[in-house]
Amino acid sequence: MSIWEYANPKKFIATTTPVIPWLFAAAGVAIVGALIWGFFFTPDDYRQGSTVKIIYLHVPSAMMAINTWVMMLVASLIWLVRRHHVSALAARAAAPVGIVMTLLALFTGAIWGQPMWGTWWAWDPRLTSFLILFLFYLGYVALWQAIDDPDTAADLTAVLCIVGSVFAVLSRYAVLFWNQGLHQGASLSLDAEENVADVFYYPLLLSLAGFVLLFLALVLLRTQTEIRVRRTRALLARSRRAAPEARA
C-alpha cells in the first residue's frame, strides 16, 4: 500500500471518517486532563507565581502555530511536485487552524508577559516574528479567497507558504538568533537541561499531545469539507455548462 493512495478524495474520506471522532475524544481527554493537572496539582513557580500555569495553553498553541505552517509547507510542496489536489486542500484546511493557534499563543503570551515584563506587548524578536507569521496566515487565506481558479490559487498560495516559512523558522528560533529580548528560552527542548521542571514538564507534554490530536482532527475534518465543497462546485459548473446544450 502506498501513501499516495490517500490522494484519492474518496479513499481519503473513507479512511479518515472513522478516525476523526476518536481524535476529538482523545484530544478532549488529554487537554482537559492536562489543564486540571497543571492548574490544580502543580505548585506556583518561585519567581512567576501562579502566572506560570498559563504555560499549558501558551506553549502548545505556540508550537502548533509554527508546526501548522510547516505542515502547510509540506502539503504545498507535494501539490507543486505531484499535483495531488488533496494535499493542496489539506494546506488550505490547516490555515484557519493555524490562525486560531497563533492568536491563542499571542493572547496567552500577552497575559503571561504583562505581570512579568510590565507590558502586554514588546517588540521582542520572537513576538515580532510571531506577529508576522500571523499576518502571513491571514494573507494565505485571503489569497485563496481572491482567486477563482483553484489550481492557480493552490500554486500561488504554495509560493506564499514557502516564503512564510522563513518567519515560521524565526518564530521558533528567534531566541537563539538574537540574544537580546524579553522572551524566555524554550520550555521544551531535546536538551533536558533547558526544559522546565518535571512538575510542569509532564502536564505540559500531555497538553501538547492534546493540541496535536486536536489539530489532526480539525485538519482532517476541514479537508473533508474542502473536498466536498470542491466537488459540489465542480458539479454545479458542469450543470451550468450542460444547461444551454440541453435547451439547444
TrEMBL record:
Gene Ontology biological process terms, A to Z: cytochrome complex assembly
Gene Ontology molecular function, alphabetical: heme binding; heme transmembrane transporter activity
Compartment list: Cell inner membrane; Membrane
Cellular component terms per the entry's GO annotation: plasma membrane
Domain Cytochrome c assembly protein: 5-183
Major localisation: membrane
Annotated family: Belongs to the CcmC/CycZ/HelC family.
Protein name: Heme exporter protein C
